Amino acid sequence: MSEILVVGSLAYDSIQTPSGRAERALGGSANYFSLAASLFAPVRVVGVVGEDYETKNIELLKSRKIDTSGMSIVKGKTFHWEGAYEGDMNEAITKKTELNVFEHFDPTLPEHYRDSEFVFLANISPDLQLKVLSQCKNPKFVGMDTMNFWISSKLNDLKAVLKKVDVVLINEGEAMMLTGAANGIEAAKKVVAMGPKALVVKRGEYGFALYTQDQGFFILPAFPIEKVIDPTGAGDTFAGGFFGYLASLGRVPTTQDLRTACIRGSILASFTIQDFSVNGLTQVSIGALETRTAQYNKVITV
Amino acid sequence: MSEILVVGSLAYDSIQTPSGRAERALGGSANYFSLAASLFAPVRVVGVVGEDYETKNIELLKSRKIDTSGMSIVKGKTFHWEGAYEGDMNEAITKKTELNVFEHFDPTLPEHYRDSEFVFLANISPDLQLKVLSQCKNPKFVGMDTMNFWISSKLNDLKAVLKKVDVVLINEGEAMMLTGAANGIEAAKKVVAMGPKALVVKRGEYGFALYTQDQGFFILPAFPIEKVIDPTGAGDTFAGGFFGYLASLGRVPTTQDLRTACIRGSILASFTIQDFSVNGLTQVSIGALETRTAQYNKVITV
Known about the structure:
The structure is a homodimer. By secondary structure, chain A is α/β, with parallel strands linked by helices. Chain A has helices spanning about 30-35, 55-65, 125-135, 150-155, 155-160, 170-180, 185-190, 235-250, 255-270, 280, 285-300, and strands at about 5, 10-15, 20-25, 45-50, 65-75, 80-85, 95-100, 120, 140-145, 165-170, 200, 210, 215-220. In chain A, a hairpin with a 2-residue loop joins strand 2 and strand 3. In chain A, about 55% of the residues are buried. Chains A and B meet through helix 7, strand 13 and helix 9 of A and helix 7, strand 13 and helix 9 of B.
């Protein structure tokens, strides 16, 4: 069992979906990731919030034994994102981004975080991802996420991060944008040629495609969900389940470990989308995850 | 081993894709279906062409032991479709539809076709689908396709066909349009509630979702293809491989047979999209299909 360090956003999200609306609900990549990963392994979170951040939201993480000593509470307001899903539930339309305290986020790791063996750099500016990585002592396994904004505005820094990580988890559109490829399959090979040993292409309702240098593609669908309430956080939940499972093994992951980890992440994400904010995720027990995994195995087996 | 009857279009397609252009190349659902199905079982085709239809295109079917005695050659021009793929390779943009002789297509089955045990009603007007079905004597297994045009213009006839078939094979957008569902998963259940025992939702590059009354969902991805040249005919190839495999078994299909048939159809379709027109499909041997199926099994297995 290894510890996981995650750096990312801690946010309040206002979200409109065909099922309704959530106003200033708990969100942010580091929250989804931590809650997901903590089902499997100890998590240490790095992030920044404003004075308006509610104590209960920190207590939620603590109740999952997540180490929050790397969270800074600073003067100002918490990062606030407003988005909507209209028709295509695989892609959010951003209505408003108020960076607030996140704008001047300068991650400094507490001393005891620096020997974390598993490190996940969630979607933040690539220069900050590099800064976090430079504070880590010889991690065993490093992963990252990114987004279209960084691909267009900080490509050189992003390329530097790509050379330093073991696995990249991004969505299909981002993989195509990063490589200029015409589809996710072509993109996967091209991303791996940029440095990482492995890439997970997140395909929303269609599941995932893992590509590894040594064994090529591993592709499976998502667990079928009839009623998607709010897809926000599905990708970060995937990454959290993926990393949590790998850290629970404690070893340097094999390709087979990565394949199993994808299924863990994918099934866990199917719970997140069944409710607004982190509500679907926080209710998942290991037992519920096992039950759904058994159902999933029937869905993908002749 | 049972005989398969297929009724559908025999056409010339002019297609623009990012890889290039094909001018008046062989197309039409009945051609793709017949060529695919004939790898596994004997096929009888019903359709109409104009005087401009080239003899070599009929000879191609005959060389695969496809019975073409139900093809009519009538005064006028063959159905011509012009389409383009721009960006999204999962959906064609129709530039021109010249129905020509297809406009007055009135399918009459040769006497020896009427006892066909497997019947596939490709994408033609639902009233013609009903007319073909009424000429069949007690078929063992009936399938159908349709399209957005019939869903909006002939919904009542379409609903009547849905009640008479065992399996529907349509793409995800069509399934959603037909049911008003927000995603393919919700749509699948709703289509099956309209009559058929099973539905195959074709998901383009993301594979397929089979839904059966008795065993629920069976979902798998498509075989990963790095360079898609022309997706035209992929869905009809899927249906042909699916039906061909089932007819080769000869029995009334079990749900497990349907699951295996989906993999057959899906793998076969992956060859069609690697070249323009039927060129990718006609080159596939059973050996090549087996080889790719073995590769596919590695892609979907941990």
